[in-house]
């Protein structure tokens, strides 16, 4: 009897201890939940407002560039100013988007001045006809603003990393209007194969608030109308797999071209002023030889045209080279929109040889090449859903999966870590491009 009573008492104590632990965990979770609501809303509003302002600035300078074609000849001088500006602000060794990835993974410092600098430099690059995107500015802008908020609020090491991811997600969402893809991209791109799930709620909330802020201030989300989506049949699977294989090869080529031209600039033009001057002149000459301005700036018009079924057979290669010449020289911007351009134009033209419609081929090519150069398959599938709608999502996802598997370990961001093999479930932990 006594032994039975003692056992009952011990069991009651264990139950009480377990109950206390559960209560403590719930209270702790509630506190963290409320805290991240506060921080995510602040980041979403701040980054969303700055992001939509940046979006309007890019739209305005793009219109000016088309109205005044002679602005192209000012590109080399604009490059000199950008290099000088970064040196004056003690940011000559700025690592760009790679610095953002390192900052999240290792909690390396990122300065607030990064935001205005990247915005001004990217706007100038677009105004004078450099070939670049805008998401690089969005990621750097969002992470630097959120890092400042984190320091101001005296967050600890782990929370600072999360708030930087919130800034990345908010910046991406404000510019592209794709909150799901933006949130997952911030968690997925830093260390491929390892998702920072603790950041899911803060990143998604910041992304949604940034989107709402951008819409309230006149921002318009990107969306594309895809025609000719095939039914889910064995033939369609074969066609999409084949296009996915080709897109993986294009993604590898994209990264190789960037790497080759970057090393060429570093080896033969080590002085940053000489490098940006020569690079600017090369872009001007290249543009004049082409005889049109379709490849200057982000090239969104050509992407939209690809979804109507029209693309030049060499458009993807021209954009690839021109963007590498621009960014490798020291101009600012991003690589993701050029990757969209490369994928959409390639898929549009060459997908037809596989029996696919040009519009659907453009969609598959766009997200599959993006997947191959960023090593972010989940983000790519969500992009397809948010940019194209739900129709044909299974086929878009298949194209992304093929491109991810076959694109190797190259990538646009050298600071990105590939944690697991793409071919078998084993840990490899290597830098992108090694």
Helical percentage: 55-70%
Strand content: under 5%
As residue ranges, the low-confidence spans are none
> What does the largest sheet look like?
3 strands, mixed
Helix/strand class = mainly alpha
The outline comes out as globular
Which sequence of SSEs, written as H and E, runs from N to C? HHHHHHHEHHHHHHHHHEE
Rg, rounded, reads: 23 Å
Number of contiguous helices: 16
Distance between the termini: 70 Å
Question: What is the mean predicted local confidence, pLDDT?
Answer: 90
Query: Could you give the count of β-strands?
Result: 3
Order of adjacent strands in the largest pleated sheet: 1-2-3
Walk me through the structure.
- It contains 16 helices and three strands.
- It has helices at 2-67, 75-88, 97-106, 114-127, 135-152, 157-176, 179-188, 200-216, 234-268, 272-290, 300-306, 315-329, 336-350, 358-374, 377-388, 393-406; strands at 191-192, 417-420, 427-431.
- A three-stranded mixed sheet has the order 1-2-3, with no helix packed on it.
- The longest helix is centred in the N-terminal third of the chain and has 66 residues, at 2-67.
- The protein is globular, with a radius of gyration of 23 Å.
List the helices and strands and how they pair.
Layout: H1 2-67, H2 75-88, H3 97-106, H4 114-127, H5 135-152, H6 157-176, H7 179-188, E1 191-192, H8 200-216, H9 234-268, H10 272-290, H11 300-306, H12 315-329, H13 336-350, H14 358-374, H15 377-388, H16 393-406, E2 417-420, E3 427-431
Parallel strand pairs: 1-2
Antiparallel strand pairs: 2-3
């Amino acid at each position: 009897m006594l032994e039975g009573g003692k056992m009952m008492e011990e069991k009651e104590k264990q139950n009480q201890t377990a109950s206390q632990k559960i209560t403590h965990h719930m209270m702790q979770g509630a506190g963290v939940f409320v805290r991240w609501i506060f921080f995510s809303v602040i980041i979403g509003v701040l980054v969303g407002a700055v992001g939509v302002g940046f979006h309007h600035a890019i739209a305005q300078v793009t219109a000016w560039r088309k109205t005044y074609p002679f602005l192209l000849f000012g590109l080399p001088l604009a490059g000199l100013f950008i290099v000088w500006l970064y040196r004056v602000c003690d940011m000559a060794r700025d690592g760009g988007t790679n610095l953002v990835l390192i900052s999240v993974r290792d909690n390396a410092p990122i300065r607030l001045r990064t935001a205005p600098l990247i915005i001004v430099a990217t706007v100038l690059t677009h105004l004078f006809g450099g070939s670049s995107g805008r998401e690089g500015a969005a990621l750097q802008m969002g992470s630097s603003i959120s890092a400042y908020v984190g320091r101001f609020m005296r967050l600890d090491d782990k929370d600072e990393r999360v708030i930087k991811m919130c800034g990345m997600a908010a910046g991406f969402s404000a510019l592209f209007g794709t909150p799901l893809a933006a949130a997952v991209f911030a968690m997925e791109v830093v260390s491929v194969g390892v998702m920072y799930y603790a950041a899911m709620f803060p990143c998604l909330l910041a992304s949604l608030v940034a989107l709402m802020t951008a819409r309230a201030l006149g921002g318009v989300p990107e969306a594309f109308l895809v025609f000719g989506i095939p039914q889910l049949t064995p033939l369609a699977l074969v066609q999409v797999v084949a296009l996915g294989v080709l897109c993986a090869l294009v993604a590898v080529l994209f990264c190789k071209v960037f790497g080759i031209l970057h090393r060429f600039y570093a080896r033969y033009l080590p002085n940053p002023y000489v490098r940006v001057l020569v690079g600017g002149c090369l872009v001007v000459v290249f543009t004049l030889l082409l005889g049109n301005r379709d490849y200057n700036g982000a090239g969104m018009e050509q992407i939209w045209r690809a979804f109507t079924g029209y693309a030049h057979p060499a458009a993807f290669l021209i954009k690839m080279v021109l963007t590498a010449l621009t960014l490798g020289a020291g101009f600012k911007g991003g690589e993701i929109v050029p990757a969209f351009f490369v994928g959409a134009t390639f898929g549009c033209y060459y997908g037809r040889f596989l029996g696919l419609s040009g519009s659907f081929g453009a969609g598959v090519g766009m997200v599959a090449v993006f997947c191959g150069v960023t090593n972010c398959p989940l983000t790519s599938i969500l992009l397809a859903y948010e940019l194209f709608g739900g129709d044909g999502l299974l086929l878009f996802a298949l194209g992304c999966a093929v491109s991810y598997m076959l694109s190797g370990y190259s990538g646009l961001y050298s600071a990105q870590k590939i944690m697991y093999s793409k071919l078998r479930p084993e840990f490899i932990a290597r830098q992108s491009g090694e």
